[in-house]
C-alpha cells in the first residue's frame, strides 16, 4: 500500500478547510509546572508544583517525574548530561539503549523516537523553565497520542505559553562538577494591537563528568526556543521553534563485580597513555553529538460552542554522531577479498606498524595479553612488538541524520451527552545512517584523527511513512462517564542501500484495529472509581532493516493489552489515587548479535546480526499516591509502587517466568515541604528496590529557596534555589542496559544553586 498519495490528499484537505477568523488568547502562563487534573477513564498521575522546587533548573525535564508512582528516571549524572545512560521505566516498560516502549510527545508533536541512533527525547526540545506541565498517561495510553512506541503509556511535555505582560528573566546556575548554566528569556507581552504574545529564550549549559578528574569529559549544550500565540477571533495560531546542540561524553556501564570493587569508577580513563588497549577507554572518545530543530504551527478553529478543529503541521531535523576509539586499524575487503574503502567487511585488524605505516605481526612466541579492561589476544599487546613499533588506533563515527515532516489533525464535537473526538496523524520520516572509520594521526600523542575516513563501513537511508486514524466517544450520564475508542496504524518502512544504489528491504507494520474502553463512576463529589482497557501498539522500527539477516516476513509488530482499575479522591487538602493494573505484552522484538571473538565491544559489527520476536512480558502491580496540605505551611507527598514483570517464552539470556531485566519490584517516595512567606525548604526520599543483580538503594534530596517580589524601578523578582541530590552520597547502580549484566553507576552527592531575577 502506497501511503504517500493518501497522505498528501488528506493534508491538502485538512489545510484547505482552515479559515482566517479570530479567537481569544489563553490566560497568562504559570511560571512553574502545574498540576494536571483531567476527568479521565485511565490512570493519570500528575506533577505536583512542589516537585519542581526539588529539582534544579540545570537538570533535564525528566527529573521532575521521578517521584510519580510507577515511574523511575535514571540519568548518568544529576544534570541529565548524557543521553547514552538515560532510562525511563514505567510498569515494566522501558526507554533505554535497547528498548523504546513508551510514547513521548512535545505539545502533542511526536518526538521522532527515543532511541539513541537518531532519536531525540523530550530533553532535546524543552528547557525546564519553559515547561508548563507533563501529561502522563500510564498503561491505557491517550488514544490521540502521535507515537509509534506507546506500548506502556505516553508522556506529553507541554511548553509554557507566553505571558501577557512584557518581562525579561535571567538566571545563573552553578554547582558541583564544574556545572554552569546561563538562561535568559524575554516575553514581549501583547503586541500587534494585542493579538499576539511571544517569548524567546536561550540557555548555555556545561558540566564535567563526575567520574575521575582532568580530561574526564563532560557535556556542553546550547538551547534556544521561540513561541508565539496569535488570536484572531475564532482562530488561534500557535507557533513554536526549538533548537538544541548537545555535545556529550558518555558514562560507561559496569558489571556488579566492577562496581563492588570501586563504586566510583565506570572503567573509563582520563589520562592518555599512548597504549591503544587502554586508550580505547579514554572518556573524551566516548561521545554523543546531536543537533535537533523542531518547529510547528498549530491552527485551532472554534466552529461554534460545540465543535472545534485543530491542525498542526510540523518539521523536525536531527543530525549528529556517535564516537568510539577502536584500539586498532581495520583492513576492509569487498566480497571478493580485495581491499576496499567502501562497504565490505574487516578481514583483519592490526595494532602496530613500522615507521612506513606497514602493519606488523606480533612475535610468534608472544603470549602476553591484557587483563583490563577486557581480555584481548597477544596481537594488540605492546610487549609483542619491537620498541620501534608504532601503535595505531581508529576513531569510529556513526553518523545520524533525520528529517521528519508531518501533520496532526483533530476534530471535537459535542452532541447531547456525547463528546466525540476523531483525528489523524501522518508523517514521512527520512533517516540516514552511515559509519566511517578514521585513522588516529598519532596514537602515541592523542586521539586527533584524519578528517578523511579510510573506510566507510555502510551508508543506508530509511523512509518510514505513517498514517494513524482514531475515533473516540465519551458519553456522560449523571454519575457515570463511559469512553469507547478505536485506532488504526498504517506504517511502511523502506531501506535504500546507497552502496548498492537500490532498495534492499521493505516491510509493512500496520496494526489491527486497536480498541479501548473505559469508565468512571462518581461515588460523590470527592471520590470516583475508574476502569480502563486498551490495546496498544509499537511499530517495527527501521533499525530492524539495518540487519541483513533479519527475516522481515517473520517479524510482527509489538502489541500490549493494558487493563487497570482504580480509585481517585480529591478534596481541598487531600488528593489520593490507587490503581491496580495488568499488562500482556506480546511479540517482543529482540536483537540477536552475531558471534564475536572479543570479550568487550564489537567495534566491527555493522549490518550483521538479526532481530526476532521472542515471546513477551506479563506485568501486574499496584500504584498509590497521596498529596496532603497539612496546613498553610506544610505539604506532604508520598507514592508507592509494587510491580511484578516476568518474561513469557524462552529466549537467549532468559527463560519464561524470569524477572524482566531492569524492572523494579518496589518503589517508595516520601517528601515534605515547608513554606513561610518568601522562604521554602523541603526534602524527599526515594527507595528503589532490587533490579536483577543490582541492589536496592535509597536516595535523599534536599532543597531550599527564597522568592521575593522587589519594589523598585528595575527588578521585579529575586529567586534563590539551592538543591542537593543524594545528600548521603549513596553508592548505587542505577540504569540497566537491558541485558541484566551491566548497569550505569548512580550520581554521587551533587549540590547546585540558582540565582534568577526578572525585570
Q: Main sheet, how many strands, which sense, barrel?
A: 22 strands, antiparallel, barrel
CATH T-level topology? Maltoporin, Chain A
CATH superfamily: TonB-dependent receptor, beta-barrel domain
Mean pLDDT over all positions: 88
How many separate helices?
Answer: 4
Low-confidence stretches: 4-38
The tally of structural domains comes to 1
Helix content: under 10%
Shape summary:
globular
- How far is the N terminus from the C terminus? 57 Å
In total, the number of strands is 39
Q: Rounded to an integer, what's the Rg over CA atoms?
A: 27 Å
Strand content: over 45%
What is the CATH level 1 assignment?
Mainly Beta
Annotation keywords:
globular, single chain, 4% helix, Maltoporin, Chain A, 39 strands, four-stranded mixed β-sheet
Any chance you could write out the topology, listing elements then pairs?
Blueprint: H1 3-16, H2 49-53, E1 71-74, E2 87-90, E3 93-95, E4 103-106, E5 109-110, E6 131-138, E7 153-159, E8 166-175, E9 179-188, E10 196-208, E11 218-232, E12 235-249, E13 254-255, H3 256-261, H4 276-279, E14 287-304, E15 307-324, E16 329-333, E17 345-350, E18 352-353, E19 390-391, E20 394-415, E21 418-439, E22 455-476, E23 480-497, E24 502-508, E25 514-522, E26 527-538, E27 558-570, E28 574-586, E29 589-592, E30 610-613, E31 616-629, E32 634-648, E33 666-676, E34 679-688, E35 697-709, E36 717-725, E37 733-736, E38 742-745, E39 750-758
Parallel strand pairs: 4-7
Antiparallel strand pairs: 1-2, 2-3, 4-5, 6-7, 8-9, 8-39, 9-10, 10-11, 11-12, 12-14, 13-38, 14-15, 15-20, 16-17, 18-19, 20-21, 21-22, 22-23, 23-24, 23-25, 25-26, 26-27, 27-28, 28-31, 29-30, 31-32, 32-33, 33-34, 34-35, 35-36, 36-39, 37-38
Amino acid at each position: 500500500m502506497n501511503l504517500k498519495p493518501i497522505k498528501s490528499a488528506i493534508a491538502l484537505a485538512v489545510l484547505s478547510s482552515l479559515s482566517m477568523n479570530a479567537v481569544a488568547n489563553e490566560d497568562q502562563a504559570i511560571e512553574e509546572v502545574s498540576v494536571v487534573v483531567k476527568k479521565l477513564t485511565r490512570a493519570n498521575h500528575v506533577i505536583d508544583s512542589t516537585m519542581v522546587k526539588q529539582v534544579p533548573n540545570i537538570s533535564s525535564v525528566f527529573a521532575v517525574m521521578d517521584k510519580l508512582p510507577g515511574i523511575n528516571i535514571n540519568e548518568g549524572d544529576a544534570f541529565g548530561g548524557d543521553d547514552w545512560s538515560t532510562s525511563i521505566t514505567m510498569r515494566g516498560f522501558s526507554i533505554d539503549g535497547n528498548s523504546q516502549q513508551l510514547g513521548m510527545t512535545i505539545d502533542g508533536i511526536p518526538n521522532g523516537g527515543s532511541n539513541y541512533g537518531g532519536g531525540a527525547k523530550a530533553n532535546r526540545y524543552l528547557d525546564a523553565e519553559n515547561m508548563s506541565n507533563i501529561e502522563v498517561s500510564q498503561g491505557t495510553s491517550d488514544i490521540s497520542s502521535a507515537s509509534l512506541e506507546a506500548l506502556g503509556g505516553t508522556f506529553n511535555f507541554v511548553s509554557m505559553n507566553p505571558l501577557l505582560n512584557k518581562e525579561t528573566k535571567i538566571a545563573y546556575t552553578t554547582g558541583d562538577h564544574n556545572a554552569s548554566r546561563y538562561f535568559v528569556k524575554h516575553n514581549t507581552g501583547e503586541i500587534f494591537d494585542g493579538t499576539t504574545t511571544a517569548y524567546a529564550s536561550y540557555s548555555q549549559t556545561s558540566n564535567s563528568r563526575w567520574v575521575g578528574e582532568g580530561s574526564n569529559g563532560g557535556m556542553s549544550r546550547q538551547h534556544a526556543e521561540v513561541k508565539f500565540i496569535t488570536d484572531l477571533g475564532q482562530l488561534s495560531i500557535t507557533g513554536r521553534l526549538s533548537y538544541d546542540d548537545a555535545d556529550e561524553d558518555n558514562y560507561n556501564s559496569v558489571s556488579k563485580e566492577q562496581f563492588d570493587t570501586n563504586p566510583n569508577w565506570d572503567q573509563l580513563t582520563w589520562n592518555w597513555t599512548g597504549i591503544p588497549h587502554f586508550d580505547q577507554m579514554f572518556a573524551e572518545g566516548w561521545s554523543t553529538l546531536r543537533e535537533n530543530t523542531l518547529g510547528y504551527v498549530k491552527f485551532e478553529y472554534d466552529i461554534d460552542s460545540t465543535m472545534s478543529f485543530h491542525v498542526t503541521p510540523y518539521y523536525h531535523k536531527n543530525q549528529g554522531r556517535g564516537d568510539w576509539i577502536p584500539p586498532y586499524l581495520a583492513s576492509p575487503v569487498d566480497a571478493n577479498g580485495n581491499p576496499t574503502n567502501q562497504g565490505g567487511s574487516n578481514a583483519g585488524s592490526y595494532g602496530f606498524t613500522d615507521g612506513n605505516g606497514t602493519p606488523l605481526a606480533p612475535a610468534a612466541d608472544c603470549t602476553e595479553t591484557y587483563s583490563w579492561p577486557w581480555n584481548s589476544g597477544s596481537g594488540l599487546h605492546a610487549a609483542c612488538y619491537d620498541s620501534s613499533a608504532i601503535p595505531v588506533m581508529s576513531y569510529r563515527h556513526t553518523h545520524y541524520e533525520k528529517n521528519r515532516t508531518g501533520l496532526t489533525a483533530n476534530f471535537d464535537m459535542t452532541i447531547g451527552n456525547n463528546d466525540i473526538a476523531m483525528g489523524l496523524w501522518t508523517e514521512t520520516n527520512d533517516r540516514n545512517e552511515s559509519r566511517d572509520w578514521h585513522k588516529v594521526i598519532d596514537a602515541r600523542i592523542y586521539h586527533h584523527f584524519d578528517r578523511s575516513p579510510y573506510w566507510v563501513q555502510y551508508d543506508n537511508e530509511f523512509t518510514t511513512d505513517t498514517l494513524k486514524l482514531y475515533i473516540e466517544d465519551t458519553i456522560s450520564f449523571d454519575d457515570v462517564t463511559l469512553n469507547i475508542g478505536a485506532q488504526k496504524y498504517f506504517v511502511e518502512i523502506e531501506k535504500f542501500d546507497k552502496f548498492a544504489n537500490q532498495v534492499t528491504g521493505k516491510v509493512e507494520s500496520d496494526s489491527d484495529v486497536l480498541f479501548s474502553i473505559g469508565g468512571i463512576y462518581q461515588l460523590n463529589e470527592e471520590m470516583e472509581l475508574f476502569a480502563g482497557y486498551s490495546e496498544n501498539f509499537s511499530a517495527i522500527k527501521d533499525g530492524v532493516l539495518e540487519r541483513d539477516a533479519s527475516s522481515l516476513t517473520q517479524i510482527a509488530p509489538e502489541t500490549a493489552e493494558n487493563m487497570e482499575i482504580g480509585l481517585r479522591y480529591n478534596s481541598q487538602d487531600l488528593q489520593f489515587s490507587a490503581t491496580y493494573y495488568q499488562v500482556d505484552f506480546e511479540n517482543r522484538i529482540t536483537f540477536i548479535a552475531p558471534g564475536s571473538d572479543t570479550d568487550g565491544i564489537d567495534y566491527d559489527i555493522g549490518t550483521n546480526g538479526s532481530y526476532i520476536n521472542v515471546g513477551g512480558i506479563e506485568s501486574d502491580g499496584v500504584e498509590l499516591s497521596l498529596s496532603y496540605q497539612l496546613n498553610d505551611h506544610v505539604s506532604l507527598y508520598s507514592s508507592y509502587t509494587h510491580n511484578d514483570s516476568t518474561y513469557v517464552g524462552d529466549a537467549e539470556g532468559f527463560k519464561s517466568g524470569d524477572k524482566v531485566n531492569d524492572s523494579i519490584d518496589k518503589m517508595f517516595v516520601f517528601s515534605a515541604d515547608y513554606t513561610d512567606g518568601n522562604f521554602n525548604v523541603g526534602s524527599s526520599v526515594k527507595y528503589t528496590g532490587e533490579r536483577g543483580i543490582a541492589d536496592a538503594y535509597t536516595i535523599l534530596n534536599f532543597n531550599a529557596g527564597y522568592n521575593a517580589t522587589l519594589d523598585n524601578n528595575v527588578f521585579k523578582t529575586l529567586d534563590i534555589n539551592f538543591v542537593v541530590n543524594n545528600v548521603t552520597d549513596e553508592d548505587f547502580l542505577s540504569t540497566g542496559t537491558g541485558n541484566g549484566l551491566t548497569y550505569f553507576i548512580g550520581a554521587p552527592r551533587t549540590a547546585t544553586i540558582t540565582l534568577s531575577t526578572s525585570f
